[in-house]
Amino acid sequence: MHRSRRLPTALWAASLLCCAGLLAPAASAAADEAASPTRTEAVTFEDNFDGPAGSAVDGGRWQLETGDNVNNHESQYYTPGSDNAALDGDGNLVITARKENPGDYQCWYGRCEYTSARLNTAERFNAEYGHVETRLKVPRGQGMWPAFWMLGADFGEVGWPASGEIDVMENVGFEPSTVHGTLHGPGYSGGGIGAGYTLPDGRQFADDFHTFAVDWAPDRISWSVDGQVYQTRTPSDTGGNPWVFNKPFFLILNLAVGGDWPGSPDENTVFPQELVVDYVRVTTSDAA
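-> structure tokens emitted (288 positions)
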């Protein structure tokens, strides 16, 4: 179901998901925290996307990738600058997918039909354990594929899947009520190891903002939606294959259009579509 999320054609080699913790009853968790020594927490990365409407993301935190992505057979061209990734003036980053090609961009299948954006923190920030979180609202429609994820910082040296990939959140348009959290690594690169989380009562993720996070510690990663942990993975889940997640990773945000997993947009897909990101934050704790 999941697939290789490799770099766009024109992206630099080292650029291109997260976390640990066990699901425990809330009362027990609170008791453990109360009984433990004072815990020191530090925010090691934070972007609240404050700035004037139309401005580009902070280049000290993010770089934009450019090009297409033949590996997943995606249909968009990732553009530079603020054309498809811009602040809205209300504290959000808006990544916009459009059915257009003003730059006569060429994709693996011919002239590109769509534009969008993808950004990462490679060479700016690497996370190594902690709480990795974003609050965002996904787009809607067949063929939409928003994601918040991470790649091993050694990607440029060892390649994928040896680098490891932690998908904090992925959504595909034909599953409007479900998101997925997945690990990819050597021996489990294709389908990956993961699970989905589905909203109750037929609610859809595109209707509102939700918080997606991973808690990441040595040999353990947990995923949550709006504070509810829905899966935990350890080396025992890899079927004897290497666990490649005890090292630094960098962050990625993108909105893909089409591809092997979501399929192509159809006549009911309305453009433009937006991935609206309230914040991205990484917090570490000495109580890990």
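The helical segments are 26-35, 155-158.
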